[in-house]
Amino acid sequence: MTDDLRALLARSRAILLDFDGPVCSIFGGYPASQVAAELLGLLEARGVDLGDDIRSETDPMEVLRWSATLGKPELLREVEDGLCRAELLAAESAIPEPHGQAVIDAAHESGRQVAIVSNNSAGAIEAYLEAHQLTDHIAFISGRSYAQPERMKPNPEPLWRAAEALAAEPTACVLIGDSLFDIDAAHAAGMPVIAFANKRWKISRFTEAAADIVLTGMSIVASTIHAINNDEEND
To answer: pLDDT tens across 170-192, in order?
Structure first.
């Protein structure tokens, strides 16, 4: 696997990172389940009849997607606004992935461009990056399109948007993500994908989904980029 990872990273001009997972746990201090419950409460307060399936939803992104099925654009925008506010608050207590910054630093030092491609709002991502002094290392942020959840991953559009902004072909990029949505989006975009299995049960899921590489830690990505850079400097 190490040789495969090295070969993939060596030919990559740009590193695209999902935000929640590879970079940080955005809802580490403000649980996603609490945010989802608050958004559901907002919908219920507006007279929406919540079915049993959505009433127990703990993922705020899925609540947003469900809101889009109601056919009420003004209500969808209200849920989007509520989620954006929650994400900004969550960014203040987000828990950094132990080696996420090391990957960003290594890629930046190697001359590779780094972009964030996320279903989270760009505002929350920007707030986190500024708080952790990473803004200068990120060339582009491809965040959630406002009140258009159909454009979120697994839709490949956010990946294409990032690749275009970096003036790189999708095949010259690599996405690092921690969900099946990331893998599906990368496949649809024609982009290699490294799946970060930050929970043990994800390993088999990601392998079955045909991720190019499946890793259980981010440190090996940083060390491999450093090794590639050292070899290039010594050539």
So the answer is: 999 999 999 999 999 999 999 99
Whole-angstrom distance, CA of residue 175 vs CA of residue 221? 12
Q: Give the DSSP letter of residue 141.
A: E
Could you please report the per-residue DSSP string of 142-209? E-PPTT-GGGSTTSSHHHHHHHHHTT--GGGEEEEESSHHHHHHHHHHT--EEEE--STTHHHHHHHT
pLDDT, tens digit (0-9, with 9 covering 90-100), for 188-216: 999 999 999 999 999 999 999 999 999 99
Residue range 2-26+95-234 in CATH 3.60.40.10:
no
User: What is the rounded distance in angstroms from the CA atom of residue 226 to the CA atom of residue 235?
Assistant: 14
**Which of 54-58, 78-82, 228-232 has the weakest average pLDDT?**
228-232
Q: How many CB atoms lie within 10 A of CB 198?
A: 16
